Amino acid sequence: MQKKKQSKNFTEGRLLSSLANLAWPIILANILQTAYQLIDTFWLGRLGANAVAAVSISFPILFLIVSLGAGLTLAGTVIVSQYKGAGNENQVDYSSSQTVFVIFFISVILAVIGYFSSAPLMKLIGAGPEILEDSVSYFKVSSWGFIFLFMFSVFQSLMRGIGNVLLPMYIVLATVFLNLVLDPLFIFGFGPIPGYGVPGAAVASVITQGLSALIGMMILLRGKKGIKINFSQMKVDFSWMERMFRIGIPSSLEMSTRAAGMTVMVMLVTSFGSEVVAAYGIGSRVLSLIVVPALGFAIATTTLVGQNIGAGKIKRAERIGNLSTKIAFFGLTAVGLVLFFLAEPITRFFVPDDPGVIRDGTLFIKIMSPSFGVLGVQQVLNGVFNGAGFTKASLLISVFSLWMVKFPLAFLLSNNTELSFVGIWWAFPLSNLLAAIVGFIYFKTGHWKRRTIRYRHREF
């Protein structure tokens, strides 16, 4: 009884209040998680533009490796939310145990691969001699954090699937404050603790990630917050894994496609020198922070759509998608307009003493910011498709956005026009707009609803 009180069923009641109650803790938790990167950038900026560039160039590869397993954690959210909506608590616990079991082994494999491939990967992506050593060191330390990062990601995903979104937020809040203290401590050193420079930022993040993962797993094992995992259920179940991979692999590929696109974009940016790389890194971090509200609404939408599909309420799931799309578009458009006018002070905050980086970073933010609303639409519609278990739709939209629009445009505009590297900046809003249009048209066709009805009859 105590276990059930810790989770919520969102198959009834007002849509706006359900969406708001789910979304704001997720948004805040994502902002706090993004703060890891912003805190790193702030302190590393005190070491100079090369330190920022070293981390910026390694981030897309880190995101690529993490994405290979992150889609499977999303599969856990979808499956658990649907069983929650169907009122099957036993399957909620069993699916959670299986998710933890599978993701743990995947995280260990990715950690080992990341560590031993760090040097060739950084050379492949185009790290120059002035940043190669720091980027490799940062990447090696960060790789060992994959295990902790994935375990906490599983905890977050499972809690979100049952509607318990406040608890992960509190844990993230505590660890970000800890990271705020540890970052300068390990970057610059203090007393008996030596300063590690760029890799010190990774050391601080791994420590905080380890603590959050430990807390999350202890909560799941105790079983008093809505889910109880059991070691006895952590065994190979091929039929369950087949379902997890059917939902999760397209999502992993979608995230990996985005990460690969980011990697290729960085390779294109590096051809213009470290100053442009640093400007791109600052703009990318601002973008990652602004995308957070869209991702928050997308994850909340996934949970709501999943629970309502589990309960057989397909029309209510469609209304959730319509409402989330409107909120994301108008809300992020307003935020984008504010950022347009604050672009220069934001860039100067990260790299206060480099006029070239300030100029280029400011222009990047100004070009991107008006398109944040349509970016929000794309993310929320992905949340609808994911909640319905139709993760292939999100994959196809991402492939279209990145590989058919963004990168070709960035390459052509930067190498064949007088825009030079500014052509890369313009590829962002254009690809955001086209991807949102494609996603919205597909959503309105209703194919995902017909497919969901067939899928539900088979699984439930």
UniProtKB/TrEMBL annotation:
CDD domains with a match to the protein in the record: MATE_like_12
Q: List GO terms (cellular component aspect).
A: plasma membrane
Q: Where are the transmembrane segments?
A: 21-39, 51-80, 100-117, 137-155, 167-190, 196-221, 259-280, 286-306, 327-343, 363-381, 393-412, 424-443
Instruction: Please name the GO terms of the biological process aspect recorded for this protein, alphabetically.
Output: monoatomic ion transport
The way this protein sits in the membrane is described as: Multi-pass membrane protein
**Keyword list, A-Z:** Antiport, Cell membrane, Ion transport, Membrane, Transmembrane, Transmembrane helix, Transport
The subcellular location is: Cell membrane
- Matches recorded under InterPro entries: MATE_fam, MATE_MdtK, MdtK-like
Name the domain of life this protein comes from: Bacteria
What's this protein's name? Multidrug-efflux transporter
- Which organism does this record belong to? Salegentibacter echinorum
